[in-house]
Amino acid sequence: MSVDQRAGEPTDAEQDPAGPQSDVPPATDGASTELAPLDVVVVTGLSGAGKNSAGRVLEDLGFFVVDNLPPALLQPMVELGARGDLRRFAAVVDVRSRAFSSDLQEAIRLLAEAGHRPRVVYVHARNEVLIRRYESVRREHPLQGSGRLIDGIDAERELLTGIAGEADLWIDTSDLNVHQLRATLESAFVEDGAPPQVVATVLSFGFKYGLPLDADLVVDARFLPNPHWIPELRPMNGRDTEVREYVLGQEDAPAFLDRYTEVLRLLLPGYRREGKRYLTLAVGCTGGKHRSVAIAEGSSPPDPGAARNGSAELYSASTSGRAVTNSAPTTAPPTEPS
């Protein structure tokens, strides 16, 4: 459903036809004063049900997220974002009083009238689950006061009756883990119906400098012949054509790349399903100059859509941000084999 854009506030000249005239031509579409409508998600619900976890998922999905935003500030924040380059805005809102609840409902109504696309996510859980969660962290419920924990939960549930009835999505987190919560929100708010991308980074390193701290998968390329022992290749690195052709031309290199690609085709759909969005593949050799660089340059994580057990619709994660680094010194050839 298309929504007309909301026009910006009239200028002084527009308000007063007799006001000062300007020789500046009217703004074109590229410099329009109109405010682009935003996708706005308001996450509210019971304390302890997982509102903040939902906010973190929305942030991963490309939303600009504000935690603990008072309802009175919701519309001003959205309007401010609309004047910038924001397209998706989310706010985690706690309702601590009946006035807060009515203020939130009014703010959502005003956003819709302004041409934005507000949606409300109501996060809740069973009483016994909420009690168990509060007891595990030993925190006081915000509405508990000097009474019992269950009294605070019941009071909050009653306060939220109005906004809960207007929610676009109810999420009962009683039996959900964080991965299942992520999957639920992805199915509702991912753009264009496409699942989030798995951003894969392929980097090279030298074992003598230690393992990369952020490596998820480590590959040892030291099973290949070392170009270090060939005098004309020694001063070069794995980005040079001669070294790359030497390394990838070894009998075992193509088979290794093919089989490792098959392993990634198995792993990437599972990583995406479990909510892992960033993957670092580290390829190492002795000094990180020849073999690891050539293998890293020659490898490319496959599209999980090509996996035997999945379809492009379910596993359409792609790789981006591909970077190859060389941890070996670049000012002079290493004195040890690489």
Automatic annotation (TrEMBL):
GO molecular function: ATP binding; GTP binding
Listed Polar residues bias regions: 316-327
Region (Disordered): 1-32, 296-338
InterPro entries membership: P-loop_NTPase, RapZ-like, RapZ-like_N, RapZ_C
Record domain RapZ C-terminal: where: 201-297
Record has GTP-binding as a keyword: yes
Domain of life of the organism encoding this protein: Bacteria
Keywords from the UniProt entry: ATP-binding, GTP-binding, Nucleotide-binding
Residues in RapZ-like N-terminal domain copies: 38-191
Keyword ATP-binding: yes
Protein name as catalogued: RNase adapter RapZ
